């Protein structure tokens, strides 16, 4: 049982993908060009925002967003204790200081009640992560940001087209950043990323920084980086955009099947969806206090699983210099030992979901 099956997805749209790739090759439009611009416009339109700036990957998207807001040495940026390191390392790369906040125990997203105690006169921004496909508590976060005059960058790498009280994630803060890594809900066939914003000023600054500090060839207003989307990826993503709504619905249906089946296993805690949130289930993450034993049962039955993430960010060796203790982040410290991601992808069948359930159920009956 694979964790995901990208080839199965390709087969469902093979003709469209093959035509798109051949057209890019025929036009030799390999870096940026009309296929990238078409995707940027399509993506911006889908979110009803004015600007989409594509880039090389989701990590660059966060870094470019921080640069576009002028964040750098002497500044502090608040973010969640549970995420992939891209969220936090980009803060450090600007020269700013990363400040971690513990997570909510049911949604796994940043706990708004613990944000204000971490705000100082150096704080410039908050980066909430819409983890696993569930939106963070944006009402509370935006109120805090407004009260303290802080920017908000939404890390939407796992939450393409999820909604919070009717608003798409990525549209509530100053900037929304996205990864199109192949395994994402909307995935390219290689690395790719983008950021969206309603601000012309932010968009110009981001586009400039991502293109060697230039909006016009050979006129470099600032020093930037080289982070551009390939034409092939732009064309592939444009094709996939036509299918993302269906794939999202299929993920939600699979999650519902998991919920119904696993809810009768008292040793398993199924995902809890926040009221008003539209979870898109990039990952289906359950909790188990005997995770290590459950892992062995899954391995024996050849079911591929994931742990996202086995070490919370403050406890990584990379952040040892901050001197954090597990008691500083008690929720993240506990949940990092309980979470496990079960297989979920649009092409899964009901029989496949039932097989996973049966293995989990038998484990606890043994």
Architecture overview:
The structure is a single chain. The two termini are 21 Å apart. A 7-stranded mixed beta sheet has the order 1-9-8-5-4-2-3, with helices on both faces. The protein has a 3-stranded antiparallel beta sheet with strand order 7-6-13, with no helix packed on it. A hairpin with a 2-residue loop joins strand 10 (214-216) and strand 11 (219-220). The chain is built from 12 helices and 15 strands. The protein folds into 2 domains: 6-241, Type I PLP-dependent aspartate aminotransferase-like (Major domain) (Aspartate Aminotransferase, domain 2, 3-Layer(aba) Sandwich), CATH 3.40.640.10; 244-365, Aspartate Aminotransferase, domain 1 (Alpha-Beta Complex). 38% of the residues lie in helices and 16% in strands. With 366 residues, the chain is α/β, with parallel strands linked by helices. The model has no long low-confidence stretch (mean pLDDT 97). It is globular and about 70 Å long. Helix 4 packs across helix 7 (200-210) and helix 9 (244-262) packs parallel to helix 12.
Q: In order across it, which strands form the biggest sheet? A: 1-9-8-5-4-2-3
CA gyration radius, whole angstroms: 21 Å
- Beta-strand content bin: 15-25%
The tally of strands reads 15
State the share of residues found in helices, binned by percent. 25-40%
End-to-end span in angstroms? Answer: 21 Å
Structural class: alpha/beta
Q: Which blocks of ≥5 consecutive residues have pLDDT under 50?
A: none
> What is the approximate shape?
globular
Biggest sheet statistics? 7 strands, mixed
Write the layout of secondary structure elements.
Layout (H helix, E strand, L loop, with lengths): L5 H7 L1 H14 L6 H14 L3 E5 L2 H11 L7 E5 L5 H8 L3 E5 L21 E5 L10 H11 L2 E5 L7 E2 L2 E2 L6 E5 L13 E5 L2 H11 L3 E3 L2 E2 L10 H11 L2 H19 L5 E2 L7 E2 L5 E5 L2 H10 L29 H6 L3 E4 L7 H16 L1
Parallel strand pairs: 2-3, 2-4, 4-5, 5-8
Antiparallel strand pairs: 1-9, 6-7, 6-13, 8-9, 10-11, 12-14, 14-15
Helix pairs in contact: 2-8, 3-8, 4-5, 4-7, 9-12, 10-12
């Amino acid at each position: 049982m694979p964790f995901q099956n990208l080839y199965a997805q390709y087969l469902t749209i093979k003709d469209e993908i093959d035509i798109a790739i051949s057209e890019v090759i025929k036009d030799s439009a390999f870096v940026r060009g009309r296929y990238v611009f078409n995707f940027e416009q399509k993506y911006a339109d889908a979110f009803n925002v004015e600007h989409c700036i594509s880039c090389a990957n989701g990590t660059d998207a966060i870094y470019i967003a921080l640069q576009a807001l002028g964040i750098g040495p002497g500044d502090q940026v608040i973010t969640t204790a549970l995420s992939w390191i891209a969220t936090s390392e980009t803060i450090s790369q600007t020269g700013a200081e990363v400040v971690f906040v513990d997570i909510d125990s049911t949604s796994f997203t940043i706990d708004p009640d613990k944000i204000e105690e971490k705000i100082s006169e150096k704080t410039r921004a908050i980066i909430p992560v819409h983890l696993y496909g569930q939106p963070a508590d944006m009402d509370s976060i935006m109120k805090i940001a407004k009260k303290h005059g802080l920017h908000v960058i939404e890390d939407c790498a796992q939450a393409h087209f999820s909604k919070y009280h009717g608003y798409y994630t990525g549209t509530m803060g100053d900037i929304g950043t996205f990864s199109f890594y192949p395994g994402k809900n909307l995935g390219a066939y290689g690395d790719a990323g983008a950021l969206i914003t309603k601000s012309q000023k932010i968009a110009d600054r981001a586009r400039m920084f991502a293109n060697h500090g230039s909006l016009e060839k050979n006129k470099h207003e600032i020093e930037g980086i080289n982070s551009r989307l390939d034409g092939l990826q732009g064309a592939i993503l444009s094709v996939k955009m036509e299918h993302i709504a269906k794939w999202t619905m299929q993920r939600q249906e699979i999650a519902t099947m998991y919920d119904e089946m696993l809810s009768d296993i008292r040793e398993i805690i199924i995902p809890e969806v926040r009221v008003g949130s539209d979870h898109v289930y990039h990952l289906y993450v359950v909790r188990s206090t005997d995770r290590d034993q459950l892992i062995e049962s899954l391995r024996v039955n050849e079911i591929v699983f994931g742990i996202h993430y086995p070490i919370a960010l403050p406890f990584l060796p990379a952040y040892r210099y901050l001197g954090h203790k597990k008691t500083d982040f008690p929720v993240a410290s506990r949940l990092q030992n309980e979470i496990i991601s079960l297989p979920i992808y649009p092409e899964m069948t009901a029989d496949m979901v039932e097989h996973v359930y049966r293995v989990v159920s038998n484990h606890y009956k043994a």
